[in-house]
């Protein structure tokens, strides 16, 4: 009926997103790309370390700790501003001391900057190390990027099992890119991951509900091709309409083809 065309990564400061082309003949092609965008909309501005929280709970040094957090936030905001304005060398200098103090969001950004190869910072192994620290600290974007590093073998030996682990953790925090990638792996089946179209639909639906246009498109294609059972043009049309409204051009083409079919009928 139609093929699923891969989308580019969402602009959410994440390193990369695995993409899929799914043909009606169930031929899969996995592509892992890279994109680092410049959005500060979802930054964690008030994150503090466990040791600081423990001290606050015990009532020890509350004023001093609060002042430290305020200074961290001010420096972090200045670093993010430099990053957005593409003053990467300055951003690197500002993020580094915060990262050394255990500030997860700064650790994430250092990983991004090393991935970007800013000045002397380009080092996949160092990027991996910062992503890992931030991921352990709970940053879902870092968890996603760490998974990509494991999937691609960048800065660390490739390990799909570990990639799945970190994508799962990131997905459970609502990261749509990670949810999409889990859908990709289950749709293809690779290595120790068995093909499971039901699980692929589950994760694509989560990503689609968050507004992921390609996940919406892929769901439409699954239903149009009958990959999950009987063909369901109503569900296919519903998801393709959402994808088209999200700006995914291939969805318009798919809708045009669908509505010209002799067996098409309006589901409205």
From TrEMBL:
SUPFAM superfamilies: HCP-like (SSF81901). InterPro entries: ISR_Activator (IPR052748), Sel1-like (IPR006597), TPR-like_helical_dom_sf (IPR011990). Gene3D superfamilies: Tetratricopeptide repeat domain. It holds the Pfam family Sel1. This is TETRATRICOPEPTIDE REPEAT FAMILY PROTEIN.
């Amino acid at each position: 009926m139609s093929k699923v065309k891969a989308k580019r990564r969402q602009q959410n400061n994440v390193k990369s997103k695995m993409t899929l082309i799914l043909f009606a003949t169930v031929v899969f092609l996995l592509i892992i790309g890279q994109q680092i965008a410049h959005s500060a909309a979802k930054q964690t501005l008030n994150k503090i370390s466990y040791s600081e929280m423990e001290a606050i709970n015990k009532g020890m040094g509350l004023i001093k700790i609060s002042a430290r957090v305020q200074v961290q936030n001010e420096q972090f905001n200045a670093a993010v501003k430099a990053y957005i304005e593409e003053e990467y060398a300055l951003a690197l200098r500002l993020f580094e001391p915060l990262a050394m103090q255990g500030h997860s969001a700064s650790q994430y950004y250092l990983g991004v900057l090393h991935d970007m190869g800013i000045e002397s910072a380009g080092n996949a192994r160092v990027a991996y190390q910062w992503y890992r620290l931030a991921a352990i600290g709970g940053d879902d974007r870092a968890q996603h990027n760490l998974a990509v590093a494991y999937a691609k073998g960048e800065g660390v030996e490739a390990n799909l099992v570990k990639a799945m682990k970190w994508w799962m953790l990131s997905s459970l925090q609502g990261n749509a890119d990670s949810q999409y990638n889990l859908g990709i792996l289950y749709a293809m089946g690779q290595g120790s991951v068995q093909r499971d179209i039901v699980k692929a639909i589950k994760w694509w639906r989560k990503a689609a509900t968050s507004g992921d246009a390609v996940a919406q498109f892929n769901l439409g294609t699954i239903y149009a091709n009958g990959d999950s059972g009987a063909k369901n043009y109503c569900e296919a049309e519903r998801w393709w309409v959402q994808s088209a409204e999200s700006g995914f051009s291939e969805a318009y083409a798919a809708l045009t083809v669908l509505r010209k079919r002799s067996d098409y009928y309006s589901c409205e």
